[in-house]
Design brief:
alpha+beta, 4-stranded mixed beta sheet, 206 residues, single chain, globular, 4 strands
């Protein structure tokens, strides 16, 4: 009799565990679908994406922003940072919560690997435009990281993103001179303007 009871308990445990993992799998598939499908974890198994992510973290450290670099690195180490090759809506990144079981940040593949020049018609040097895209991507990932960590209010999330841009500008302008200072300030101010415009759209539900 005791053996039968133990067998029933064991079978019940197996069923519960199997059901749990089946639900997790559904949550993972739903999260991937919300990110456009075809998503995959950002890790060493994708060398191009891994190198690009490493370059982003190195740049943040060079800008004396080790806190954000560490936070993004920890996100990746937890397996919560994914690459989305088909992320829709002209978004660079998105935070997705699925069934209360899966929480991931997806970054669009082309934004990570090879973003185009954002202002091709402006007489702005290419290095300055590249600096803008790097700053904007870092700020966007910070934005989605806030959602990932539980901040739901979109206005406050944008406020924190914009505050980071301003902090970056204040820290870097003391270290730069001449044209380098001018174009870095342009890049940060452009990122702030872009975030402010996005905040206004979010406020009216566009």
């Amino acid at each position: 009799m005791r053996v039968k009871v133990l067998l029933r308990i064991g079978l019940g445990v197996v069923i519960v565990v199997s059901t749990y993992f089946a639900i997790v799998r559904v949550a993972e598939e739903k999260a991937a679908a919300l990110a456009g499908g075809g998503a995959y974890a950002l890790n060493r198994q994708s060398p191009e994406e891994w190198d690009a992510f490493g370059a982003l973290l190195d740049q943040l450290r060079a800008w004396e922003e080790p806190g954000l670099a560490a936070a993004l690195g920890q996100l990746q180490e937890r397996g919560a940072l994914w690459v989305a090759p088909r992320l829709a809506g002209q978004r660079s990144a998105i935070s997705v919560q699925s069934l209360g079981l899966v929480s991931r940040v997806f970054v669009r593949r082309d934004e990570l690997l090879n973003p185009g020049l954002p202002f091709p018609d402006l007489e702005v040097p290419e290095p300055a435009q590249r600096t803008f895209t790097t700053i904007r991507l870092a700020g966007t990932l910070l934005h989605e990281l806030q959602h990932h960590e539980g901040l739901e209010d979109e206005g406050e999330t944008y406020d924190r993103e914009i505050a980071w841009y301003r902090h970056l500008r204040e820290g870097m302008l003391d270290r730069l001179e001449g044209e380098d200072r001018h174009w870095f300030e342009w890049a940060v101010d452009s990122a702030i303007q872009s975030a402010e415009a996005a905040r206004e759209k979010a406020a009216v539900g566009l």
